[in-house]
């Protein structure tokens, strides 16, 4: 590869890239300006690579935290851990800080690290073609760009999933998905129905229960809930963190260790003592905090704790017992113009229906059309389901890498840490090209096949296959998440095994 490649950026519509754009050195095309895309831009700039553009389909950065603005939205990973390792934040207000604060943090980091100049907003990438050793990109608005490397940072929980319930279009009130919350609608005088009981619904119920006219929670499957308090961070602590940023770094690292040992390393072994302890604490939460025995049994799951992603909440059980909050366990039959009718024949009259029904978690780069070496189509390669070697590289799609791609670690820990480890690994692959060892690099088919076989085998031991339905499972019931310990992930990410890569 020629290390001083020229950019061939042209626009038919949309904003032209800034004239100050750097054009020397290899060109990087980053897709998505959420947490992971921002990370890539910051790290590339730090390494001296400034010939890049971040394509973002929305008009703001922030990914998940831009899209999820529902009442009660927060990150249930401690804020000191859910921060970039290189940008500790002494200002977090709470142990688990609210979504708007997290979004503001990302905006602040983008400004401080001076990466806004690389971001092309309102530019949805629709197509990528690998031709003559370079990636040719097109956006919906007609921008064309050519780069040497693509980093796809398109997110996991990104495409809202709506249920398939009869009569959804007949509803005459207001309805929206939790990730499309309309904050202009006053809620106090409304009868609201929430479909779903995942992490999102639990946060909404905790925020709204008792402060709206009626809140009806439609539960298909009960959830285990781990009670963790969310105290505000004391002003004295903030002052100390400001003055001693190393203490904050130490806190980040010790929380990371704690989450690895107690969540990530535990859930991949269904028989582990930690999983049993989690179960005990969840049962205790239910027993101690739900008074009415009928309600308590309705809220008791019939599968093991942590089989689905564990819901963390300081007060869900308290919220579900507030006045005006109803748990409905009768199955939904249909949606009608005035509300939701359950199979017991009852019509639950509603003004608003919220679909807290999760996301399509197998889309990744799609619906973008991506064509690799020889015109190989990603839509064909991923026809059955998405896969990537170590969640990062796809055979025949050289010099294209994913952050938080398929089969990576997801769960009750920080995806920022996952992306940071992945980026350092990807940089080592890119260095193979930049140092002239090869022109193209992508995982071999053989490496991907073995990776898939091994992860499917390892997943048999995880708590995710102990008898529940969740987004961790694919259409065959096989876990999609990294099935080994987080320590193993750290080890794999430390240095690529180059014999697993095709280098041309
Ligand atoms: P989710 O965990 O996928 O939950 C979807 C809910 O909708 C489930 O209760 C599901 O019931 C229900 N549902 C789906 N289709 C339905 C239908 N046709 N009829 C009735 N119920 C239906 O989605 P989520 O709560 O949005 O959370 C997704 C992920 O986002 C989480 O697991 C987590 O990783 C992340 N998240 C994180 C935080 C955080 O604080 N870090 C907060 C929110 C979300 P079943 O259980 O029966 O399938």
Q: What do you see in this structure?
A:
The chain contains 13 helices and 23 strands. The chain is of the alpha/beta class and 504 residues long. It has 2 domains: 28-159 and 360-503, FAD/NAD(P)-binding domain; 168-224 and 268-355, FAD/NAD(P)-binding domain (3-Layer(bba) Sandwich), CATH 3.50.50. The strands form 7 sheets. Strands 3-2-1-7-21 form a 5-stranded parallel beta sheet, covered by helices on one side. A 5-stranded parallel beta sheet has the order 9-18-10-11-14, with helices on one face. Helix 5 crosses helix 6. It is globular, with a radius of gyration of 23 Å. Residues 2-6 and 11-19 have low confidence and may be disordered. It binds NADP nicotinamide-adenine-dinucleotide phosphate (NAP). Residues 74-77, 157, 163, 165, 178, 195-201, 203, 220-221, 309, 332, 356-359, 469, 471 line the site of NADP nicotinamide-adenine-dinucleotide phosphate.
């Amino acid at each position: 590869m020629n290390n001083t490649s020229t950019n061939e950026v042209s626009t038919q519509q949309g904003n032209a890239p800034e004239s100050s754009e750097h054009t020397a050195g290899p060109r990087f095309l980053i897709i998505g300006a959420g947490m992971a895309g921002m990370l890539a831009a910051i790290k590339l700039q730090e390494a001296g690579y400034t010939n890049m553009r971040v394509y973002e389909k929305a008009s703001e950065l922030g990914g998940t935290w831009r899209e999820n603005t529902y009442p009660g939205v927060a990150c249930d990973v401690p804020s000191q851990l859910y921060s970039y390792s290189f940008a500790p934040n002494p200002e977090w207000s709470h142990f688990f800080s609210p979504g708007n604060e997290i979004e503001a943090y990302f905006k602040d980091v983008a400004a401080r690290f001076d990466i806004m100049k690389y971001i092309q907003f309102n530019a949805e990438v629709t197509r990528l073609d690998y031709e003559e050793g370079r990636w040719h990109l097109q956006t919906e608005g007609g921008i064309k760009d050519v780069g040497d490397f693509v980093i796809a940072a398109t997110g996991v929980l990104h495409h809202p999933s709506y249920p398939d319930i009869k009569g959804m279009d007949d509803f005459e009130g207001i309805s929206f998905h939790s990730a499309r919350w309309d904050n202009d609608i006053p809620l106090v005088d409304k009868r609201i129905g929430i479909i779903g009981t995942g992490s999102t619904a639990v946060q909404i119920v905790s925020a709204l229960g008792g402060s709206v006219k009626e809140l009806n929670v439609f539960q298909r499957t009960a959830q285990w809930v781990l009670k963790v308090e969310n105290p505000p961070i004391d002003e004295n602590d903030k002052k100390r963190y400001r003055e001693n940023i190393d203490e904050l770094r130490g806190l980040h690292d010790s929380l990371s260790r704690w989450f690895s040992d107690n969540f990530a390393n535990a859930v991949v072994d269904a028989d582990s003592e930690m999983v049993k302890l989690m179960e005990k604490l969840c049962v205790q939460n239910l027993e101690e905090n739900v008074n009415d025995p009928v309600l308590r049994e309705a809220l008791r799951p019939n599968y093991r704790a942590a089989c689905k992603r564990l819901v963390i909440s300081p007060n869900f059980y308290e919220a579900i017992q507030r006045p005006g909050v109803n748990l409905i366990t009768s199955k939904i039959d249909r949606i009608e113009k005035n509300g939701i009718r359950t199979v017991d024949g009852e019509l639950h009259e509603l003004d608003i229906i919220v679909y807290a029904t999760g996301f399509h978690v197998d889309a990744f780069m799609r619906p973008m059309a991506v064509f690799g070496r020889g015109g190989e189509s990603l839509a064909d390669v991923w026809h059955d389901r998405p896969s990537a070697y170590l969640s990062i590289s796809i055979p025949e799609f050289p010099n294209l890498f994913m952050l938080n791609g398929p089969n990576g670690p997801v769960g009750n820990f920080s995806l920022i840490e996952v992306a940071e480890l992945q980026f350092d690994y990807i940089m080592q692959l890119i260095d193979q090209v930049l140092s002239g060892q090869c022109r193209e690099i992508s995982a071999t088919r053989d490496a991907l096949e073995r990776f898939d076989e091994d992860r499917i085998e390892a997943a048999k031991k995880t708590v995710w296959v102990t008898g529940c339905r969740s987004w961790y499972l694919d259409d065959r019931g096989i876990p999609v998440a990294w099935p080994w310990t987080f320590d193993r992930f750290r080890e794999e990410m430390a240095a690529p095994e180059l014999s697993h890569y095709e280098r041309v």
